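For consistency, the fold was encoded as tokens, which produced the following:
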Amino acid sequence: MLVDGAAHRLRDVAHVTPLAPAPRLSRRLGATVLLKREDQQPVFSFKLRGAYNRIACLDDTAAAAGVICSSAGNHAQGVALAARMRGIPATVVMPRTTPSIKVEAVRDYGAEVVLHGDNYDAAQTHAHELAEQLGRTFIHPFDDVRVIAGQATIGRELLDSGLPFGTVVVPIGGGGLAAGVALAIKAVNPEVRIIGVEPAQSASMLAALENGAPVTLPRVGLFADGVAVRRVGDQTFTLCREFIDEIVTVDTDETCAAIRDIYEDTRTVVEPAGALAVAGIRHLSERGDLGADNVVAIVCGANLNFDRLRHIAERAAIGEHREALFAVRIHEEPGSFRAFCNCIGDRSVTEFNYRYAGAGDARIFVGIELSGGVEEGADVLEQIRAAGYPAEDLSHSELAKLHVRHLVGGRAPGEGNERVYRFEFPERPGALGEFLDAVGERWNISLFHYRNHGSDYGRVLAGIQVDDDDRAELDAHLETLGYPCWDETDNPAYRLFLT
């Protein structure tokens, strides 16, 4: 009954989005893949469904007082538009790190924006405080029965389409979309398989299912920011545990490859969360588990910052196994550079970084275009090694893909006393300076590389010179900084190319 009511309320608000074929992807995977295009909603995301249904159910007194939510993206826009449609005030609390394009989009729908804190948790806490002070109704992004019912109308539309399907693949963040879709479909056809997809770095629903109850992850990856949820909802957990058949996880490269897949079939660039379902279908295909019936992927959103496109393009080639990255050490002598180029033959080179390192050695970081997938990459590595060059395949190294491919090699002064660390910190004006202040002047920085991909977090690779006697003090200091940190000193990408 809740889903019926939601469908009635949304009939003139949310689009009945198309269930579109993906012919290129279907041919490549050997299965019929259909895309449920929720990126074509007025706010370019499914979030309008749940937000509008919740707000439409407020009584007149609560509605007059207004609504409030915390969000850095799609839910914020859904609440803002839904409130405007009902003619009531809305406040959206967003982290200070939120890109301006998202802030302006919410303001364009008429909501008041309050920027608070450096992350979603801080914004959410402040939103609850304001809700109590102002007497406003807090609109939860996922753990609300009427929000879930609104998202469930997607499942109802799939059933009403008349097209047969055996598997529906749905992205999972807090679980509202997955719970609603699974509930609607399983109530009518329990034989349909529902597969949830989470980023490997933000698999909060999978962790909850394995634990038997929701758990709070210490941190989540932010690339797919639309599903970067540390703790799923209690209600969404209960429904997903009952109605979701399986959850698979995908990495950043697989997600970027899925964004490219969707673009090639639709000429639309979706956000990382919006491509998760297609990444999940690719994952099922690789393990031979797509089945014979039509497979539906819910494309849940397309609110993407333009300046993230370069990073996505870089990672998509690796995710599709169209490019391999290698670090190689060669002996420096006249003709050695050319000899190495001859070694790799007439393959297309996507990038080539070369650095003379002294002591008769040179370092090469090379990207090679592949047409034969993983098998060809392994063949190229063997070919390089057979020619006498020490080499490593770095195609799956975060250090290589985030930093090393944009650097050149060389040895830092002070033999053997450099440690290399990878950091993330909230991106905002002055954040880089704050990070350097936190690191302090106790140790010398011998290498520094900073990248931001248009997301809420900046990435830093830092070489720090420290004697063995001071290592414990440095490690203790880094623990107190409050920034996620990885020691990459033993990473082959560092050992082969940056030393």
